[in-house]
Write a structure and sequence with these properties.
The chain has 14 helices and nine strands. By secondary structure, it is an alpha/beta fold. The chain folds into two domains: 207 residues, Alpha-Beta Complex (Spore Coat Polysaccharide Biosynthesis Protein SpsA, Chain A), CATH 3.90.550.10; 104 residues. Strands 1, 2, 3, 4, 5, 6, 7, 8 and 9 form a nine-stranded mixed beta sheet that branches. Helix 2 links the parallel strand 2 and strand 3. The longest helix has 23 residues.
Length: 336
């Protein structure tokens, strides 16, 4: 049995990016893998020709008869995969040469881990040279999942036996947030972890889904929140849901109304209390994340709304650094 199945859907890829992606996989120090490439733009004969030009028996090329979409293509690739482990790859990124070797050895040594990510470095047209290291261990990764994905999707290596046993699939209602949904599903049955070392290069460019589909991503984020709350039997008022979706977890919205900040605070406090009662996630880690998000929203309200947050901060039960927020409040008042 092959040890690793590298899966990579392709859609209208730029020629140079696709070549770099393919060659970064073929040049891995670890060699016992199959490379499943699924073309989701079957009318693009140029892409077909580029892939056919690589004379390597590890490449297994297929194409959809018509465009299926991202999650559907990933699910098709999962069905095709034969490896003990599945490694995700983007068609416009690059693996570091030791990526598969490092992840394979780590998962072999830690059978309790079902999903393993790595650090990664941004490069390309924008945000160049920025290295990202997500939380390393399971409790902290899970604590962030309601708020953001903390295992970067194309760095994931998955234990296929867990996917098969528990029928884990990509949620085909999501285009962008299927990675967070996948993390959440795995977290129910196994440990999640990140190797902090940078083993992946993540290309930023203007045609990325995250750049072109911002409204769609916001809708999907709200859908994920709704599923998370429903699965854990947590009920919020419509007003709390609105603030949580559009302000609490979304830092680009400008908070200029003290009522919004108050609702965000109360919602995060209630989530921390409910989590401790239900023991959904390790309480200390989850409460810490809730405090971090409240602090961020306070800073947002200070900067954009010029709000006096002293009263709200003084009453919160969340373990925020109140001294820093008070100092920011004083400085803002002085600036006026």
């Amino acid at each position: 049995m092959v040890m690793i199945s590298v899966i990579m859907p392709v859609y209208e890829s730029k020629t140079a990016y696709l070549r770099e992606a393919i060659e970064s996989v073929l040049n891995q120090t670890y060699q016992d893998f199959e490379f499943l490439i699924l073309n989701d733009s079957p009318t693009n004969k140029k892409l077909r020709g580029i892939i056919a030009g690589y004379d390597d028996e590890r490449i297994k090329y297929s194409e959809n008869q018509t465009n299926m979409g991202i999650p559907q293509s990933y699910n098709k690739l999962l069905d095709m995969a034969a490896g003990k482990y599945i490694a995700i790859m983007n068609h416009d990124d690059m693996m570091k040469p030791e990526r598969l070797q490092r992840q394979y050895e780590y998962m072999e040594a830690h059978p309790e881990i079902g999903m393993l990510g790595t650090g990664y470095k941004k490069f390309g047209e924008i945000n160049r040279f920025k290295a990202i290291r997500n939380p390393r261990y399971h409790n902290e990764i899970c604590a962030y999942l309601l708020f953001k994905s903390s295992v970067h999707h194309p760095t994931m290596m998955l234990r296929r036996a867990i996917m098969t046993e528990h029928k884990i699939r990509y949620n085909e209602n999501f285009i962008s947030l299927n990675d967070r949904q996948l993390c959440y599903e795995f977290s129910k049955y196994s440990m999640l972890e990140n190797i902090p070392d940078v083993l992946y290069k993540y290309r930023f460019h203007s045609q990325m889904t995250s750049k072109k589909q911002k409204q769609m991503i916001r809708r999907e984020r709200a859908m994920f929140h709704k599923l998370w709350f429903a699965y854990n039997n947590i009920e919020l008022t419509p007003e709390e849901v609105d603030v949580f979706d559009n302000y609490t977890t979304y830092g680009r919205q400008k908070i200029q109304d003290a009522k919004i900040l108050t609702i965000a605070c109360h919602t995060l406090e209630n989530l921390a209390v409910l989590n401790e009662k239900k023991q959904l996630i390790e309480p200390k880690s989850f409460t810490k994340v809730c405090a971090q998000y409240f602090t961020k929203r306070c800073l947002n309200a200070l900067y954009y709304g010029h709000l006096n947050i002293s009263e709200i901060v003084s009453k919160t039960s969340l373990p925020v650094d109140k001294a820093i927020l008070r100092m920011c409040n004083i400085l803002l008042g002085w600036r006026k």
